[in-house]
Write a structure and sequence with these properties.
Layout: E1 10-24, H1 38-42, E2 44-58, E3 62-66, H2 73-80, E4 88-93, E5 96-97, H3 102-108, E6 109-112, H4 125-134, H5 140-153, H6 169-181, E7 187-191, H7 199-214, E8 219-224, H8 227-233, E9 236-241, E10 244-249, H9 251-255, E11 263-269, H10 275-282, E12 288-292, E13 302-307, H11 311-324, E14 328-335, H12 339-347
Parallel strand pairs: 3-8, 3-9, 6-7, 7-8
Antiparallel strand pairs: 1-2, 1-4, 4-5, 9-10, 11-13, 11-14, 12-13
This protein binds adenosine-5'-diphosphate (ADP) and magnesium ion.
Length: about 350
């Protein structure tokens, strides 16, 4: 493990980090027949993958980078891990500068980028880990012990001597995570660690990530396009879109941005005559109260909607109040905002659009 000397509260800091890619415009297969001057032929398309990103991730924090396909997540992770050199700005990892202290940065972090595809499928899980550990120049005895520890932690010991080609995708992904942990780095960069995995493996891997953060105190940057994953795991989340950080906060803080979408709907018979006024007084922070009266004789119930405020906190108050007035409640709907709602509010687009596969991911 590499210790930093400046006892900084932040294990990852990015300072105006910027990266663009230039690629030649595709002119189609008959492009060579098209007329155009020399300048036009050389015209290149520029994609701004990271647009001056400033992030501060606290030591020990499990920090999510949530954004759709193409948002720039993988590019950020690659810049932090020194695989890519940024065009502008820099980042400090564990106290070391990614531009000037590459070796120390690499020693400070473990990364899972592209996961299982970067392992040797013809080798066993154990041999893969032994090989990658040998690159860290650890003593052989220490390597053996560490590999066994990790195989056990990942629940792979009983199949450790099978080749990866006989493993499932989820098992190979576990090996990729084990590899990232070989040198016990204080910082972990995980790029879409559960991409394409079935729910059982996703759950196991998410639990593992939670443990690494909560029990081992690792600082984790988790890039994902799965909002449930970010919501469930992360202490704080940065929402990223088109290379920009558009919001940062805890899940609750982010959801508070769309609290107007919280809804409690009560379907009942015999609501009190002055239901609107009555509920408005009881729940002053609710923005809209509507009552659509049904007709009990015809079997159509009334529908009461309360929009805004905190729906989960509200539900008990509303039910109790209506019961007190002898209303018969037949059903309840409650909808709380998701990070998807936050994303839609901020960008006008859906988070889940696209196939979730960034380039090179
Ligand atoms: N090597 C590359 N060459 C050209 N464009 C790239 C390259 N890598 C990424 N991009 C582009 O940069 C943008 C961000 O990509 P990426 O960081 O992979 O996003 P994400 O991981 O959030 O899906 C995308 O528009 C992508 O097409
Ligand atoms: Mg990606």
């Amino acid at each position: 493990m590499v210790h930093n000397e400046n006892n900084d509260a932040y294990s990852i800091k990015t300072i105006n980090l910027a990266k663009s890619f230039r690629k030649k415009k595709h002119k189609g297969i008959f492009g060579f027949l098209k007329k155009g001057n020399q300048k036009e032929k050389l015209e290149k398309e520029v994609t701004v993958a990271l647009d001056h990103v400033n992030l501060r991730i606290r030591t020990g924090e499990l920090f999510g980078l949530l954004g759709p396909n193409g948002a720039g997540k993988t590019t950020l992770v690659k810049c932090l891990s020194t695989i890519l050199i940024p065009d502008e700005g820099t980042a400090i990892i564990n106290g070391f500068d990614i531009r000037k202290q590459t070796t120390l940065v690499r020693a400070s972090l473990g990364m899972v980028i592209g996961g299982e595809r970067t392992l040797y499928w013809k080798l066993t899980a154990r041999d893969n880990l032994m090989y990658f550990a040998s690159l860290y120049k650890m003593p052989r005895k220490r390597i053996k012990k560490r590999v066994d520890e990790l195989l056990e932690a990942m629940n792979l010991l009983d199949r450790a001597d099978e080749r990866l080609e006989d493993y499932s995708t989820g098992m190979r992904q576990k090996v990729a995570i084990a590899r990232a942990l070989l040198h016990d780095p204080p910082v972990l960069l995980l790029d879409e660690p559960t991409l394409g995995l079935d729910p059982t493996f996703s759950r196991q891997i998410r639990n593992q990530i939670r443990e690494l953060s909560k029990k081992e105190g690792k600082t984790v940057l988790l890039a994902t396009h799965y909002m449930e994953e970010a919501d469930e795991l992360c202490d704080r989340i940065a929402i990223v879109n088109e290379g920009k950080i558009i919001a940062v906060g805890t899940s609750d803080e982010l959801k508070a941005m769309v609290k107007e979408t919280e809804l409690v709907e009560v379907i009942c018979y015999n609501p009190p005559q002055n239901a609107e006024e009555y509920l408005r007084t009881l729940c002053p922070d609710v923005e809209i109260v509507t009552v659509v009266r049904g007709e009990k004789e015809k079997g159509t119930p009334s529908r009461i909607k309360l929009i805004g405020g905190n729906a989960e906190k509200r539900i008990g108050t509303v039910v109790d109040a209506l019961r007190k007035k002898n209303s018969q409640i037949t059903s309840l709907n409650i909808s709380v905002p998701t990070l998807e709602d936050v994303f839609i509010k901020l960008t006008g687009a859906k988070l889940t659009e696209g196939d979730g596969r960034g380039r090179d991911q």
